[in-house]
Amino acid sequence: MKLSKLTTFLDRLDASDMHYTLTSVSEGAVMVGVTVPDQRWEIEFMADGEIEVEVFESGGEIQDFSIVSRLFERDADA
């Protein structure tokens, strides 16, 4: 893994006072999760140097707790 790209990116997040989390969902990869108003970013740094970015955007609509049942319905349909 090209750690310099990852550490440079983390340094930029720290300098910007952005909150982030580090996880590993793929072998040999580190995912950085960044949440900003109305968006969640997932930036995955792969061992081979590849970087993948996925952005999830919210329409700003707030739901009540009853929407949680849809989460489990999705799983039941699979």
Number of domains: 1
Strand fraction band? Answer: 25-35%
**And the CATH topology?**
Double Stranded RNA Binding Domain
Q: Number of helical segments?
A: 2
Briefly note the structural class of the backbone.
Answer: alpha+beta
Q: Shape from CA axes? A: flat
Low-confidence parts: none
CATH architecture: 2-Layer Sandwich
Topology, number of strands: 4
Instruction: Describe the main β-sheet briefly.
Output: 4 strands, antiparallel
Please estimate the helix content: 25-40%
* SSE order, one letter for each helix or strand: HEEEEH
Brief descriptors of the model:
35% strand; 2 helices; four-stranded antiparallel sheet; 78 residues; Double Stranded RNA Binding Domain; alpha+beta
Structure description:
The protein has 78 residues and is α+β, with helices and mostly antiparallel strands. The chain has one domain (3-77): Double Stranded RNA Binding Domain, CATH 3.30.160. Helix content is 29%, strand content 35%. The protein has two helices and four strands; from the N terminus they run αββββα. The chain has a four-stranded antiparallel β-sheet with strand order 1-2-3-4, covered by helices on one side. Strand 3 and strand 4 form a beta hairpin. It is flat.
Could you give a quick summary of the protein structure above?
With 78 residues, the chain is α+β, with helices and mostly antiparallel strands. It has helices at residues 3-15, 68-77, and strands spanning 20-23, 29-36, 39-46, 51-57.
